[in-house]
Amino acid sequence: MKIAMIGTGYVGLVSGVCFSDFGHTVVCVDKNPEKVAQLNRGEVPIYEPGLDVLMEKNVAAGRLAFTGDLTEAVADADAVFIAVGTPTRRGDGHADLSYVYAAAEEIAAAIKGFTVIVTKSTVPVGTNRKVFEIINKTRTTDEFDVASNPEFLREGAAIDDFMRPDRVVVGVETERAQEVMGDIYRPLFLRDFPVVYTDLESAEMIKYAANAFLATKITFINEIAALCERVGADIKSVSKGMGLDGRIGNKFLHAGPGYGGSCFPKDTKALARIGQEHAVPQEITEAVIMVNEEVKRRMIEKLRDLCEGSFNGKTIAVLGVTFKPNTDDMRDAPSLTIVPALVGGGAKVRVVDPQGRHEGEKLLPGVDWVEDPYAAAEGANALVLITEWNEFRALDLSRMAQSMASARMADLRNIYSAADAEAAGFEAYSCVGRPDMTVDKGDDPAAVAG
To answer: Is 265 exposed, middle or buried (0-12, 13-18, 19+ CB in 10 A)?
Structure first.
């Protein structure tokens, strides 16, 4: 099959590379000439483990190419995927579909012969029918069809998610379109990965419903974590006890500083807006959005307490600022709420992140970037762990505590424990939904207050 992928952002690039690895001939299109040149030099503009190797392999095999010429790429394609951005629109929370519709207009002018136009971008219900209307102004219905094929890629594990998916969702209206989509995904079907065919509206809704549900699980456990702190329960034990129930499952039950990234914030807001427009308010989703912001603000107060009521004049080392490990994505990351509060409160902030600096330098002004966590901790008054990169999971806490001006640690991902911190010589340790540790400065320096 010949495929044109419109857009080389996270979804478009990963999907295009993986389709080429299935054996299809793929041309990825982007309007940014610098980005196209970068890709043609073999440079990957995003950080995704393994993507550079897979891209190089398929370019060398002649199955993958990059261009800025949409007309040429689309002309002889069997399927054209729209994988452009749908950011949250300012003012109303709705997904901005201008890039999707602009791509549809260009595609309409360029296709030759029967072509399936597939929306890969996350779009509100009804978007694919609008795409059909746009193209139908230029082309007859025997020249094209539309399909909805939402992505379910986790940043940091996107290749594995594409190659070994929980399911592939395809919304189609005709047998001809289903045949084309079936040929594209045949390598997965032959390996018994489920391919779910449905109508266009259901496919669009599945994406939003799935992301909103996962965001709800995260937010629910974060609220329970706050309650655990008040009543003396341990959120790790609570999560384990809940997750062993097969009806609930153990995924997305890890307490932390709130969700972020390219999907959950944008998609929950869009789903809430869709509900409002159709007079069916999505009140649970609206509450999730509100509580997630409260969780981030609660982390700031937790850090303020750790710093004895004030950030002013303190040196604070921050470990991890991307919204999750194994990505360079900073979109709606909890750090974008937490770090500015530290800086605004008068703290000198040192930041360490294996991949976050490129984006972070623009988004987090006023911080010092350090390559090594031990260098960041030296002379610091507090250490804050925000993103659970593997590099931060086995730190020499004793070495850190000894080098700090005051050995205080906020572990917002619950990687360590109060016992670990106490043994390492920390005088204070704060986490999420678990007992904190502070050393009594009186007669018994080993006393621990839960």
So the answer is: buried
Q: pTM of the entire structure? A: 0.91
Measured in whole angstroms, how far is the alpha carbon of residue 49 from the centre of its chain? 14
Chain segment 262-304, per-residue pLDDT in tens: 889 999 999 999 999 999 999 999 999 999 999 999 999 999 9
Looking at the fold, whether 159 and 299 belong to one and the same domain comes out as no
Are 191 and 241 part of one and the same domain? no
In angstroms, what is the C-alpha Rg of the chain? 24
Predicted pLDDT of residue 208: 96
**CATH number of residue 321's parent domain:** 3.40.50.720
Q: Catalytic: which of 18, 28, 228, 263?
A: 263
Cβ 128 vs Cβ 204: under 8 Å = yes
263 is catalytic: yes
Helix (H) or strand (E) holding 219: helix 200-231
Q: Nearest 5°: CA angle at 417, between 229 and 378?
A: 115
Residues of the chain with pLDDT under 70: 91, 438-450
Q: How many domains does the chain fold into?
A: 3
